[in-house]
Specification:
The protein is of the alpha+beta class and 368 residues long. 28% of the residues lie in helices and 28% in strands. The strands form five sheets. A four-stranded mixed β-sheet has the order 1-2-4-3, covered by helices on one side. Its main location: cytoplasm.
Length: 368
């Protein structure tokens, strides 16, 4: 019997749970998660974490214990049928995921995009197309807005072999959620990732969205105006801007803005959500401020991806090897590296010679 990976989540959050479950499926090895979200005011599985776990159980027909709200200990065994020739980090046979069509209701405004984030790497072990329709929050706090996934993350991952698309039926803002989106994944042969240099700015894309209930206040337009007025670009870069504004149906009033910066090699995204009492222009300025901080780091060692994307790319980096320069070793980056190493991946973090922590190289090689 395969040994169970015993993982301690006492100093980690929901990302620890999502990454651990994805790695368990990718490597076809059981995990025991203890002290889940142990450093949070309300530890254990919340609705959105439970939805991720239940989805993974259904996709794999996995054996599980502790799949209930507030549970602080979960044992998950994907027990996939092995496929000869498909090997993991230590040469063991990987399983194959059958695909199919599934529907998930988070039941709250819990993040749809974080559930999608868990599923995306599974394309590398799919036997057939997988489509998962999720009801919940599309644009909510502590998670990437839907337009970040659609227009930043997926385009970047497609460059490295991922075949995926996101179909949106309805937006769901806090507090009611009620959004609905479908992730379509096809069997994918992922490629090694090399993202170490930024290159010249090649394009700026702006995606500003408002619920129909805010249309009479021109929220999407004002967000876009605030962002463009604040964004620090050279005069010669102004022709690179592509602007998208949209009004959408949603059970709750809300808005979001995403800025995408395209460079010679990478794609970086920066976002902000509308909040009651915050002027729409200020929401756009917040997204632009984050983009400006990114643009301040110039030169050949400037990171080609944003700090949130850096964490999300580590699983793909470890799967096929490669090199990635990240803006910062955040807590999420450090936790993901520890999890990957627990599953046998070899990662090396090398700080820039100048001693600037914002310029970090993460290397990964896998066993043949």
């Amino acid at each position: 019997m395969t040994a169970v990976h015993e993982l301690d989540g006492s100093e980690a959050g929901g990302q620890f749970v999502r990454t651990a479950l994805a790695l368990s499926v990718l490597e076809n090895e059981p995990v025991r998660l203890e002290h889940i979200r142990g450093n949070r005011p309300n530890p254990g599985l919340a609705h959105q974490h439970l939805a991720v776990l239940e989805t993974m159980v259904e996709l794999c027909d996995a054996e599980v214990s502790g799949a209930e709200l507030d549970s602080e200990t979960v044992v998950f065994d994907p027990a996939l049928e092995s496929t000869t020739g498909a090997t993991g980090w230590r040469g063991q046979e990987r399983g194959r995921l059958p695909g199919g069509e599934y529907a998930v209701d988070i039941g709250t405004a819990g993040s749809i995009t974080l559930l999608f984030d868990t599923l995306l790497p599974l394309a590398s072990v799919l036997d057939a197309q997988l489509s998962v329709t999720v009801t919940g929050g599309t644009d909510v706090k502590w998670s990437p807005p839907l337009d970040y996934v659609r227009h930043v993350k997926l385009p970047l991952l497609r460059r490295f072999g991922l075949t995926a698309a996101c179909e949106v039926d309805r937006r769901g803002f806090y507090p009611n959620g009620g959004g609905r989106a479908t992730l379509h994944l096809a069997p994918s042969s992922l490629e090694s990732i090399t993202l170490t240099e930024r290159g010249p700015l090649e394009g700026v894309r702006l995606y500003s969205v408002e619920s129909a209930s805010l249309a009479d206040r021109d929220v999407a337009h004002r967000q876009a105006e605030g962002a463009l007025e604040r964004l620090s670009l050279e005069e010669t870069d102004l022709d690179l801007i592509e602007r998208h504004e949209a009004t959408v149906t949603s059970p709750s009033p809300g808005s979001a803005i995403v800025l995408r910066l395209d460079h010679g090699t990478g794609i970086a995204g920066f976002s902000a959500l509308g909040e009651r009492g915050t002027p729409a222009e200020r929401v756009g300025e917040d997204a632009a401020d984050a983009a400006n901080r990114f643009l301040e780091h110039a030169g050949e060692r400037a990171p080609p991806v944003d700090r949130h994307m850096a964490d999300q790319l580590l699983v793909y980096l470890a799967l096929e090897g490669g090199r990635l320069r990240v803006p910062d070793v955040t807590d999420h980056v450090a936790t993901s590296c520890e999890l990957l190493e627990a599953f046998g991946a070899r990662l090396e973090i090398t700080h820039d010679e100048a001693g600037e922590p914002a310029l970090v190289t993460v290397e990964s090689t896998v066993d043949a």
